[in-house]
Specification:
The chain is an alpha+beta fold. Among the domains are: 32-134, Phosphorylase Kinase, domain 1; 136-213 and 227-335, Transferase(Phosphotransferase) domain 1 (Transferase(Phosphotransferase), domain 1, Orthogonal Bundle). 54% of the residues lie in helices and 7% in strands. It has 34 helices and 11 strands. It is globular and about 90 Å long.
Amino acid sequence: MPAPRSRAEPSRGPRTGSDVPCIEPESSTLTLEAAVAMDADVSGSRTECDRLGRFLILDTLGSGGMGVVREAHDHTLDRTVALKVLHPGAAQQHRTRLLREAQALARLSHPNVVQVYEIGTVGDDTFIAMELVRGQTLRDWACERRSWRQTVEVYLQAGEGLAAAHAEGLVHRDFKPDNCIIGDNGRVRVLDFGLAREVELSSREDRSGLEDTDALDEVPWSDSLLGEPLTAAGAVLGTVAYMPYEQLQGHAADALSDQFSFCASLYEALYGMRAFSGQSAFSLMTALRHNRIRPAPPHVKVPRRLRRALVRGLSADPRARWPSMRALLDELRALLPRHRWWRTPLLLAVGVGLGGGLLALWGPRTDVCDRPEAGLYDAWSPEDREKLERVFLRYGSIESPHGLRERVTGRLDAYVADWTAMAQDSCHATFVTQQQSEQLFDRRMRCLERRRNHLRSTIDALTESSDRAQLVQRSILAFKLPVLEPCADLDALIEQPIIVEPVEDRDRLAELRQRIDRAHTLREAGALHRGLELAKSARREAEALGDPLLRAEALECMGRLQAESAYALDAVQTLSEAVLLASRISANEVEARAWLSMLYAMTIDRSLTAAKSRMLAVRAAVERTGDRVLQAWWLNNVGILYAETGQRRQARDYLRRALELKSRTLGEDHVDVGITWLNVGTLLVNDGELRGAHDAFERARAIFEATVGDEHPLMAYVDAGRCRVDTGLGSYDAAIERCGRAMLRFESTPQSDANEYRVRTVMARALWGAGRYAEARAMAQRARWLSGSVGPEEERELLEWIDEHDEPVDGGPHRSERE
């Protein structure tokens, strides 16, 4: 299992135009927890690889006076969770607070609130099993430069979580940036409801008697604790910098108190400083009481209407604040750019069933399709470009001038331009010339939405690169973005099944599609484990939502990742389920991709007879889609299958047809065309056709040099193939040089023992041919150590070669070379 993603280091650079450094977390929190904190060891009493009941402990995520949070795997339900575990012997107050948090979260089912799975005890340990979210807190997120729009959009998600809690009669009482996490998929969740308290929704009308006056008592586990106070009279909970005046006075917090904390957090994120200054609790309370909000820095540009909304929410008198979180969120959302056609295609489609659609209500407008590029503002913005260029500069100038950075950004720019042109064309055909129905417009925009998801996840993967090698490897993502042409294939789009999404689930379903697309991108990036975890979570959520299409998509994605992660048997089972589900709902494209992935999994698992028995079904599924890219991959995969079964003539024919179709559909210089040229070269060199293999490998090299560059791992396969060719032609020195380059690459690449084995065996033959006999034998012996990664036939051939090439007589060549 991978280590949990650490929080980003706080950036000290400017944010939203400000030179104010990041605000560090408040060092002093006035909580009962802080007052009675036990000085336990930060690692807790358990170690990694220990167990807590059925949970396998994987890592420690954080700790505090009350307990420790661990990453764990739930063997029974096959999921990774976060376990919040009390320190052994913790006070009853801590146990009460933990149960309070579990009860609060268990009552909420909202995408912006962290999900609780269960609470329990094992021996003396009390724990909550919760959803594990990989990402960073909103405090860490805000340390990087953000526009006010980005900041408001993110905090709107957190506000939705609070509003959902208020609708259930729950108050958080400790909302702050540290208690919100933004996941790798961009979704924000509110967490740490340990101070949550159940209140009457009408309690605002009478604030008399709101003080917490009951002391803590022993409360049975079976009783509800949400209505019980956690402190004695007058005690203060929460974090000082984000607490309203009434809460600092010891009065009970309610929904309007949470609103204040929310506005204080958002104010800090926007301006880079806190709304109220104070070096002590007394000075802070004075500023709060007199409503002395700090003036905005002159160089931070925030709309006046936004500032007015926050100032109202920060009022000392709760009655002067917004009447509810919902009212505040509506005001904030009104400040953002209008959701135009490229952002809400489904809303436009709703109009079809209401008698002519939205255009009929508004009348024709010539500017309805203006600025379609805004549909990509959150996928490839100037800020994204700047961030990507910084990553390239951080790891050195790669192949400059006109190097990899220029090629990657150029490819992204071209993709954005094509996406924009297609989006505008679709809008114009629907709302200006009215040659296209709104239902078809909806389908085209959904298709483009999926491409936008891939673009976004590609940029994220590139900018998250941890070193030069990873950045170079992931550069291929820019050249493997899904083609846009299917979004203009009107006939195919019309034949797609009608999708009806409940309005209340629309955001969750869009996020789920984004998660599946990100998992596919992670697979292309080589981050197989992260992609597999994401696909598994998508499958679970699709099942919970009861959406068969997204469940089929998640299964197909999960199966392909299992196949490439060497779980071929699991992959076949998963993909079989995807095929059945997709065929049941006539999701032809998903079914075809699942069949193709199954064929691939069986081939690499050497289940060749089973793979051949499914060829007809795969072909039928692919032909039903009419998708030429899928047809090209069908030809490619069948060519490889025939090669593995020794049917060379059929293999050549299918690979030749795959090359032709890929070149016509994708362009002759596309990376996928280069990959098929590699397959052709390998087939030819296996048949001893060295000149033809040489030409095929050189075609692949030219394509890779023009796209991903000389440093990309794909070049290792080219060098390995050319090494075999040069060895066969007797050009031993050139072969040794090429094999050496390939071997170095494979040695540093995870899960490439089989490739390293094959290169070492070829290099041993090249060294022998060059007269470097001792080196040749040593190279063969080192290859032998890796023989467990290949089949028994290859291992037997190597052992025979080692036996035949024993010590040469009198320093001369081996006897077989003299004869």
